[in-house]
Amino acid sequence: MRNPHSNGEATGENGFGDGVILGLDGGATSTVCVCVPYFSFGDRFPDPLPILGRAVAGCTNRNSVGETAARDSLEQVVSEALAQSGSDKSDVRGVCLGVSGVNHPSDQEKIENWIRDMFPSHVKVYVQNDAIVALASGTMGKLHGCVLIAGTGCIAYGFGEDGKEARASGGGPILGDWGSGYGISAQALTAVIRAHDGRGPETLLTSTILKALGLSSPDELIGWTYADPSWARIAALVPHVVSCAEAGDKISDKILVDAADDLALSVKAVVQRLGLCGEDGTASFPVVMVGGVLNANRKWDTGKEVSNRIIRYFPGAQTIIPKV
Amino acid sequence: MRNPHSNGEATGENGFGDGVILGLDGGATSTVCVCVPYFSFGDRFPDPLPILGRAVAGCTNRNSVGETAARDSLEQVVSEALAQSGSDKSDVRGVCLGVSGVNHPSDQEKIENWIRDMFPSHVKVYVQNDAIVALASGTMGKLHGCVLIAGTGCIAYGFGEDGKEARASGGGPILGDWGSGYGISAQALTAVIRAHDGRGPETLLTSTILKALGLSSPDELIGWTYADPSWARIAALVPHVVSCAEAGDKISDKILVDAADDLALSVKAVVQRLGLCGEDGTASFPVVMVGGVLNANRKWDTGKEVSNRIIRYFPGAQTIIPKV
Asked: How many CB pairs under 8 A join A and B?
């Protein structure tokens, strides 16, 4: 096979005759696929790396949108990125896929198999949970420490010096990810329903959420909630919960405090299982925290709240919220 | 039109020439349709009423199984019951539908419209929430008092002497029906995940639920949970939670205590809004309690726990658990 990159040249239809690599990043809301030229190990990489094609599709987490929709999104985004780059499937040398959500081996395997079905058998496929990608990006590539992701879903992931790994949360909305964007929003919706039917106290969330969704009564929230089962749609209500908390609403405040407790507890569980904090509990280790829930707001800063709790547990923890 | 029943005679292909009535009962797990002969008002009803056809299909709650599946189940069960009775759609004079689940007017309307689409416009359609059917059956037809249903879902419904109505709970799993069978089971699954990843204490639920589902690790629960989104499948784990509580498991006990609190709170909210307990809070009124969650078990009797709480709130409450 030709390898024009070994002498720094580019040839072929797309200008990179030695084939392409696809990078896929699958989040709960969307999936991004970029197509970059293939370089042999040892080649000098151009900086910046030329992006030959880029496409965006819907969610590829099968636990959220179902197997068929997840697979369709994957097929679509790959085809579009390839078409943009002027390549086709036969040009693909490898696929690197970062996936969000549930990290059970059988999930990874499923996605890996979908990709393998799409390409000839010689194409190399790498699947990695996005938590791992986030940790590596926050620690300059070193896989040691803990990463907490709190977006639509949430997960805490840890890596010990000895190569051991541990995870906490990440079970999705039915299995108690209360610190996730989905969890926060579901509790806010529940608080509105409870205030409406007399089981709970009044809350500013009622008028705020109804207005945001263009609904006239809390009864209509039920139809709204079940009309579309995608998790990201519900999680998108988080900013309203934050704004209510900032306006002094006690119910919203409690939901966010509970979420911060839950997220910090997930980190604590991972750190303890891996012994990242050392025998006396004071060893230094990084905790990279990413995701929309952890973003700073005007007054309520969930990232800071979680960080404070983690440092209370482990004085040696170095919490890092990467600037995006 | 012929009306052979006015003289007690039956004619026509199915032996009841004046047409048929369909009775539909839609629960979270299944939908039953019976086909009975039509009798004019004033006719003497034969006792027992002859059942011309009976069919069972899947769930018709669109919030649980989605709109297409719910509608398909409805079509299927109607066709089968009619076929069994030797009738066809043109024989149908009226349809009485008792539906479970979310009771917002738009839900009722949707189902009513489905049925109307199935039949010619002269066919009378009555849609009623199953809570109302349950109260009437527990109070010998009188619509006064409160009904609590706790099966796969849960809902409390109340009717005042003045014709006023109120509801609490019934918002489904995302909107905090924690006293429902689904709510109880989801918390049990969450407890297993939390014990597994180090966020929560060990519980007997782990070995019990894994064994019941034929799984080898709590990690596999994630895939199991999201493989099939129907609520009834998750709610079916309730007996395992009860057996663990009966065996002394503290986590299971707490889940069931919380569920009993939540169910009693739903009744309390309805009673207070309607003033069923009178001004001094001691007036007598019936509370009919139905559904699988409230069934007595060996030691743990959720129905009795809920009943005790209701009577603690309202000494005049007459709790009734109809024998099925």
From this structure: 128
Query: Could you tell me which CATH class the domain B4-133 is placed in?
Result: alpha beta
Q: Structure tokens of A121?
A: 């058998």
Architecture of domain A139-324: 2-Layer Sandwich (3.30)
- Mean pLDDT across chain A: 82
* Closest in B104, B226, B265 to A172, CB measured: B226
Contact A171 B106 (CB under 8 A): no
- Same topology, domains A4-130 and A139-324? Answer is yes
Contact A197 B266 (CB under 8 A): yes
Cα A88-A70-A189 angle, rounded to 5 deg = 145
What is the tens place of the pLDDT at every residue in A20-55? 888 887 766 678 888 888 765 555 555 556 778 888
Is the sign of the CA dihedral B51, B53, B58, B61 positive or negative?
negative
Q: How many residues does chain B have?
A: 324
Yes or no: say if B65 and B233 are a contact pair by the CB < 8 Å rule. Answer: no
The whole-model pTM stands at 0.72
Question: Cα(A28)–Cα(A22) distance, rounded to whole angstroms?
Answer: 19
Strands across the sheet containing B124-129: B53-57, B31-37, B20-26, B92-99, B124-129
Residue indicated by tokens 């199935």? B118
Reported as a single tens digit per residue, the pLDDT across A168-223 is 998 888 898 999 999 999 999 999 999 999 999 999 999 999 999 999 999 999 88
Question: From the list A106, A186, A194, which residue is nearest B174 (CB)?
Answer: A186
Q: Do the Cβ atoms of A175 and B187 come within 8 Å?
A: no
CA distance A150 to chain B (A): 16
Identify all chain B residues contacting A173, using CB atoms and an 8 Å cutoff. 174
Q: Considering only residues 117 to 176 of chain B, which have any Cβ-Cβ distance to chain A shorter than 8 Å?
A: 166-176
The pLDDT tens digits for B11-58 are 444 445 578 888 887 766 678 888 888 765 555 555 556 778 888 887
pLDDT exceeds 70 at position B317: yes
Q: Which of A64-78, A263-277, B59-73, B180-194 has the lowest mean pLDDT?
A: B59-73
Domain ranges of chain B: 4-133, 139-324
Q: So what's the pLDDT on residue A244?
A: 97
Q: In chain A, what percentage of residues exceed pLDDT 90?
A: 37
> Is B193 in Cβ contact with A273 (below 8 Å)?
no
Residues 235-274 of A with CB under 8 A from B: 265-266, 268-270, 272-273
Given a cut of 80, is residue A292 above it in pLDDT? yes
Interchain CB contact of A76 with B (< 8 Å): no
Integer CA distances (angstroms), B254 to A232, B154, B184, B244, in order: 31, 19, 10, 11
Residue range A4-130 in CATH 3.30.479.30: no
Please give the ipTM for the structure prediction. Answer: 0.71
B199 min Cα distance to partner chain A (Å):
6
pLDDT in tens, B232-254: 899 999 999 999 999 999 999 99
Interchain contact, A174 vs B186, CB within 8 Å: yes
CA distance B68 to chain A (A): 12
- Please tell me the distance in Å from B283's CA to the nearest CA on chain A: 20
